[in-house]
Amino acid sequence: MPLNLTPVGTGILEATYVPEVAAPSKVLVMQEGTQVPGSPFHVNVRPAQEVNKVHVYGNGVNSTVPASLSSNFTIDARDAGSGKLSIGLTVRNQIPEKVSVGHESMIQVDCSRAGPGQLMARIYQVGELIPIDMESMESNPGVKSLYYMPKSIGLIKGEIRFGGQPIPGGTFVQYVVTPDELSRPEPKRANEVQHVAQNYYPVEFKLPCMPLSRSTAYKAIVIRPNGKQVDIPVEDHFDGTLSVRYQPEDKGMHELHVMNVNKKAGTSMPLPGSPYRFFVDSVSTGQVSAHGPGLTYGVTGQKAEFTIVTKDAGGGGLSLSIEGPSKVEINCHDNGDGTCTISYVPLVSGEYTISIKFHDKDINGSPFTAKVTGKCSGTGCPPHSTNSLIQI
Q: So what family is this one in (predicted)?
């Protein structure tokens, strides 16, 4: 086998070699054809790892140990060579990074070599526990299957313990997304141009928010009518408000989810009022349509606005009503271009129903639901639901 000699001092050489097989070997050391005293030297070459030389002892490996209480044992691997040591309690299937909202997910844990003990699991979302069903496999009773179903989009955090102690790979964070997002193929390359339809009104939200900590960030997601999920940027104005802008690509009812995400802690908290539902209509003439943030959300004591488009719709009666926890004053401004701007100031938080009718028929998306957040104090806050109606 190859051998290297390296001078390390006057008249001193260091010899290094790598044994190729595990077997008794001889090392011959010769000077000018004559063996030096003691040569040949006998060397017993052993395998790099010898599992049979690992010794385990202690109370923690007795035939019975109490569950959920600390038990200790010692592993002596000093004579076993080099290698990685592992203990037989593992998550059997790889925990995915993403799971689907409203659909059952499953994690398998192999406890077959873990000895006596109780398997426990907790999964949290928005500070609440998600119910978990635990089943044993008939073909392998030592394998446990954990079933759970996330109920909302965001982050969930899970922890799996055996005998009261965390198991390897048992602490995890998952993103909860729509079923379409879970099955979506890899994103297109940067040089591939994607068509974006421009015949829809852009949507902009300005929402109240709390200041961020160093470990948190705001995240916004739009779920389109076809179920596809779109991540959109969030602009924090650092004045207690944030803005979200979205260019729709299709017609119909959309959902906007805005949340405060702490990825390190595995938590996400939706903004008050989230998710926001909004209807997208095409920019076309000959029909009455409506768009604007006031159809979707509002803040108590602040003006909410939206626009009604009547261009080329012909003659006919247009009526508007807003019904909710408080009576609101409705103001209408004719813009002179076939559109009018509607504004109102909600005084009490809750859901407001906005009905827009043309020829006594609801326009597309009507009735709309605006979620109003915040509190109103003082004598100007009515205690019960009232209705506001105007004819335009």
A: Belongs to the filamin family.
Fold identical between 90-180 and 284-392?
yes
Global pTM?
Answer: 0.56
What is the assigned CATH class of domain 90-180? mainly beta
Q: Which tokens hold the place of 42?
A: 């006998």
Arch. (CATH architecture) of 284-392: Sandwich (2.60)
Q: Which CATH number fits domain 197-281: 1.10.150.120, 1.20.1050.10, 3.50.30.50, 2.60.40.10?
A: 2.60.40.10
Give the model confidence (pLDDT) of 334-382 as tens digits. 888 888 899 999 999 999 999 999 888 888 888 999 999 875 444 334 4
- Nearest of 11, 37, 42, 15 to residue 26 by alpha carbon: 42
Q: What are phi and psi of 294, to 5 degrees?
A: -65, -15
Give tens-digit pLDDT for 193-214. 344 445 777 888 888 888 888 8
CA gap 83, 299 in Å, rounded: 62
> Tell me, what amino acid is at 146?
L
